[in-house]
Structure formats: C-alpha cells, structure tokens
Amino acid sequence: MVDTIGHRFGPEAPQVGKAVQHVDNVIGELWQRLQSEVDEPVNLILVSDHGVSQIKADAMIDYSAFNIDDQLFEVVNGATRLMIYAHENTTTQQINELKQRLQAANNGQYWLETNAQLAQLGVTETARKPAIILGTKAPAIFTSRPPERRKDGGTHGYHSNRDMDGIFIAAGPAIKAKAPLQRFSNIHIYPFMAQLLGLELLTPIDGDAKVLAPLLADKKAD
Ligand SMILES: [Zn+2]
Q: What is the distance in A from the centroid of ligand 1 to the CA of 38?
C-alpha cells in the first residue's frame, strides 16, 4: 500500500503520510492483540525492503533516442537501470561500439555501471548479466514514454543512499529496548531471526548474526 502510493505520488506527498498512518494503525492493533490474545511470548520485527525517491517527469531519460539496434541487442527497461543484452551472434566489437556511443551521448544524466558498482549489488559474471547496464540517480529514470505521458512520482532501485533505506523495528521479550546499532544491510536480519527462533543455519550465507546481536536481551535464568 505505502509502496503503491509512494510510486504514484512521490515520497513527500500527503497521500503517503496517510498510507503510513493507516499501516501504523493496523500494526498497532496487531501488537495490542498479540499482548492480549496470544499466550506465547512474541517478538515482532517490522521491515521494509526499500525506501523511495522522488522522480520528475522533466528529468526522465528517453532511451528510444539511443537508437539501439534490435538486431544486435535486446533492451530491458528497469526504470532506475537500463539493461542491454547482446544477442548470441553480437560481437565484442559491436558491444564496445555501443558502449562508446552511449558514453559519448551522455551529458551527465546516466552512467555505464562498472563491474565494481555491480558487485556491490551482488551482480556477478553470469550468462544472465546484461552486456551493458546504464545507471542513473533520482529524480531521473529511463523511459520510452512520450513526454505528455510522463508523470512525477516516486521509485526505488537506485544505488544505496539514505532515501533507499528501509525501516527496521523490533520489539518483544527477546529484544532489548535500547541498543546501539549502526546502519546495516538487511541481509543480516535473517541470521538474527534464526537466532531468536533457535534455528541452525544449514547453508553458508552472506548475512552475519553478529551485526544485530547487540539487540538480543540477556537470557533470563530459568
Ligand atoms: Zn515499489
């Protein structure tokens, strides 16, 4: 709900405030009823998977103007990124030529994502990785819509920044009310939850239980 309204109206719109208030009320009711209607101790963790940035119709990048040859490439628009896949018979030279052309046509609106930038997002060298990925930042997105059909609004998917951050709220008998925490990546929530539930991790993961360990309340002696 908050996501849909955030896309349509942008993060600062009063409609988003109302949507947040509505969800907050529903969660409040859930929390109250967990206390009064459930006999077991319950820890409640609230997360969102991302934030949202304002996008502006007049900052949008029309990628149809790039005239990318569809005999050689397939273009998939991800709004915050443009993914350009090479067909099977497309040569490295043809890919490099397109890279150079996109680089030359760029007036600071977008960039070619480097391997180092992509590695931060967990993108590795596989057959599914596009030959070229263009990135941009708010308030721009990639679009093929004609100008009269572009609207201001909101979106997510940009490189990590404060606007893109999600929320993390945790409360319950196993969780300390106050604990010092740095800004952290949400991959560390899963091992934290496994620890709360006493579940063993059966496969290696990138998340680290130590990151959220300061939140764990000291176990009471039985
Ligand atoms: Zn969304």
A: 33
| DSSP symbol at 175 | B
Q: How many domains does the chain have?
A: 1
In a domain, 99, yes or no: yes
- pLDDT tens track, the chain, 222 positions: 999 999 999 999 999 999 999 999 999 999 999 999 999 999 999 999 999 999 999 999 999 999 999 999 999 999 999 999 999 999 999 999 999 999 999 989 999 999 999 988 888 888 889 999 999 999 999 999 999 999 999 999 999 999 999 999 999 999 998 888 999 999 999 999 999 999 999 999 999 999 999 999 986 555
Q: What is the pTM of this model?
A: 0.86
CA 55 to ligand 1 centroid distance, Å:
13
C-alpha 58/C-alpha 56 separation (Å) is 5
Neighbours of ion ligand 1 (CB under 5 A): 3
Q: Which domain holds residue 89?
A: 57-151
